[in-house]
Amino acid sequence: MKFKLLNNLKKISLMLCFAMLFQIASINVVKTHAAENAKLTYSIKGETKIGNIVDILVNISNISNLYGGSVDFLYDKSLLEVQSIKTGSIFGSEKVQTPVEKIENGQANLVFTLTGIKDGVKGNGTIAVIKAKILKAGAINLKTTTKNDDLKVNGNNVRVKLVNSNETAIAYASEEKSISSLGNPVKVTELNVNKSTPQVKGSSITFTAKSSGGSTVLYQFWIFDGNSWKMVRDYNKSNTFTWNPSKSGNYKVAVYAKDINSNKALDSSKAMNYNIVDSIGKVDPVKVTELNVNKSAPQVKGSSITFTAKSSGGSTALYQFWIFDGNGWKMVRDYNRSNTFTWNPSKSGNYKVTVYAKDINSNKALDSSKAMNYNIVDSIGKVDPVKVTELNVNKSAPQVKGSSITFTAKSSGGSTALYQFWIFDGNGWKMVRDYNRSNTFTWNPSKSGNYKVTVYAKDINSNKALDSSKAMNYNIVDSIGKVDPVKVTELNVNKSAPQVKGSSITFTAKSSGGSTALYQFWIFDGNGWKMVRDYNKSNTFTWNPSKSGNYKVTVYAKDINSNKALDSSKAMNYNIVDSIAKVDPVVVNSITSDKSAPQAKGTPIKFTAKASGGSTVLYQFWIFDGSSWKMVRDYDKSNTFTWNSSKNGNYRVSVYAKDINSNKALDSSKVMNYTIN
């Protein structure tokens, strides 16, 4: 019997629910102050920032016998994304049915009714909870009606109808609610000016502010003249202000910004110093001096390539970048103060990259430009790694502190090598020149000591700290004793003149003095002088003349630390011919002494050889002491040798002779016996 009664009650409740829904839809509730003084209000739970999810609470206070009702909410889908609409906390643990609970076409609808109790709820609480996501900055005014007229986003956008258990409409008062500043707070991110400081009084100077956040941003401009602040433009939506100062001085310009719905004096600000002068001297126009790139061409498509411009002149330079792809020019970065542009090409091809530059105050399209060709490819073959092959210095160690010393590195491999220089002073390493394409570094040491100089090298496209390195020790001293100047003492040749054109002829210089001698070779062909080998430490030069003629060969020599063109020189005439008649071989005809044997030990004895044949004869002398042979005078053009024997004995004296152009150890020889007692 009990079970049957409960079943009947549920059926009755369901019928009442549908009846209530019909009644609510047909009732027009007039907004009045009822005896109970019921009042409908709205509140927001959560922070109203873009991307946040908040709860819009529909609240009621001073209500009696609330049994059912409906809430309809029309909203701007670009501002909000309503996710749900549910009954609120005022119903507590009572059973509530919601035959309508839907979100469709920018409208949220809720119909609710109590079941299973005789009288409705009373007191204060939340009727409905609308859960929504903030999509963008804006403002929503919640305005309530009880009428069945169409809802409007910018008018009555919430319809709330309430009934009691007697199916009678409940009157209530309501208040509007504005959900404003739905975006992030306003923040001034930049304050820029179209003309760099200083400017002449009377100039027209425009300041431009940039900001983030807020729904609609208002801007206000202030100027401080050194004595006080003055508002020069009140809040409005324009983010620019143009100033025409009438007096010179040091000013501060500030911009205030706030959201249109903000009640504060400002939400954010930014300021800059600005100098106004009576006159400005003439400024040279901007001129682009360099356009460099961090990776040498070619590069693979998709690479990140940074171009850097350098300029002179102007007050503040602005840079604009263009690229020509073979079909047309495209501006890839408009004018601003940054002198760099990073490019990520997506297609292979032959490109031209151009930078335009102009002064910030220039009205021209450009003041100057510079361009470079750049090749982008689909792929690049393997490149050998960079390897440092030499580290040279222009002045040999030691050098006096304060000297200017230049180190030069040489390398192989890679596409484009970068060089970095380091110095170790005995305590620690210090980088003295960072990576760039220059392979030289000039050092001016201020302290004496034993140093180590190192060069690092790597390919321009390498991600490593270095690909290769080379080091040298270098000594710096407080002072150096006086060094005699370099003097060329001899200039010799390995083949006597004349020689046939095409011959390989080696000249050898000898010098005295200096710390380290450098040698430079010149040849005069009868018409003019030509430097055939620049200064280096090698004292030899090999010449392969292609024409016959009478030449003059000269060697210049100087100390490695000398600033002069030369310290000393020596020259010789040399004849080159088309052909040379056959020359008879050298034959030693005789060897004689100026004193007949025997002679006492210590006596100077002069031996003289005579030879025939050859072009120029060279002579070499040997002595056998009974045990072994010893060369006592090497080959040269002199045919005499003076001997001072220090021991008694029976000796053999031999002379070797050969032509100056002979490659043999000797062409002929002759021997004589000689006794010392």
UniProtKB/TrEMBL annotation:
Record-linked Gene3D superfamilies: 2.60.40.680
Boundaries of every PKD/Chitinase domain copy: 188-279, 290-379, 390-479, 490-579, 588-676
InterPro entries documented for this protein: CBM2/CBM3_carb-bd_dom_sf, PKD/Chitinase_dom, PKD_dom_sf, Y_Y_Y
Signal keyword on record: yes
Protein name per the record: PKD/Chitinase domain-containing protein
Pfam family, one: Y_Y_Y
Signal peptide: 1-27
Example GO molecular function: carbohydrate binding
Keywords recorded for this protein, A-Z: Signal
